[in-house]
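Need a sequence for this fold. Nothing fancy.
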């Protein structure tokens, strides 16, 4: 992680299942001085994604991170190889 963090073009994406996941994200961001951090909701189905989306958006905003949907899940669900 330290090597990737040293590149200005690096983007870091973390999948969030619950608010407690932020402890580890914050620790990594501070430890490695990460920039360009995105949070995405955990979920294998469209319904799971949608149920966590607002929470993850709020966490991203509260901590100054970006938010990203997991579009492949929203479009195809848990189907592999798409």
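Here you go.
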């Amino acid at each position: 992680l330290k090597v990737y963090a040293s590149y200005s073009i690096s983007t870091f994406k973390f999948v969030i299942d619950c608010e407690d996941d932020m402890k580890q994200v914050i620790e990594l961001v501070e430890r490695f001085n990460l920039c360009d951090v995105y949070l995405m909701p955990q979920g294998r189905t469209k319904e799971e994604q949608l149920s966590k989306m607002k929470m993850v958006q709020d966490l991203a905003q509260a901590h100054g991170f970006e938010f990203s949907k997991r579009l492949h899940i929203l479009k195809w669900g848990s189907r592999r190889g798409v």
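For context: Helices lie at 2-5, 21-32, 46-63, 71-76.
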